[in-house]
Task: structure prediction
Amino acid sequence: MRFYLCGVILILVAILAGCVESSFNLAPDSRLPEWFDVPEGMTRNDLSVTMDYYVKRSGGQAVFKLYNKHGKKLEQVTGHTRGDKPIKLKNSPAGFPPGRPMYEVVTVNGIVDIIEHREKGPTFYVTSDPTIWKELGVRKEE
Result:
């Protein structure tokens, strides 16, 4: 009975806190998301970003962590995703398989950016392509 109760408690904690759905690393050749600034004395090449998607009862969340080149965490922010599924464009751009890239519109502290998943795997990009922003109906701040 004690083990059953512990199991129920763990499930309730997971539901309330959310569970990591998937984890990604920002591609080295991608720009940083708008909510991160390059710290003074550093360049984009000195930084890395991880992103974890969480599934929660209240909707999707994305947690972004900014690290220096030594692996020290400099900043962490939590954003909310628009909808509960990645967004696909009406027509895939040339050079991509059908259904790719997929996008997530994420808002952190009122700042909006678009995450791009070009292919299956642990890498993500941040897009500045105005045609994608327009098709997804996104403005810089929501």
The longest helix spans residues 2-17. The first strand starts at residue 19 and ends at 26. The radius of gyration is 17 Å. The helical segments are 2-17, 130-135.
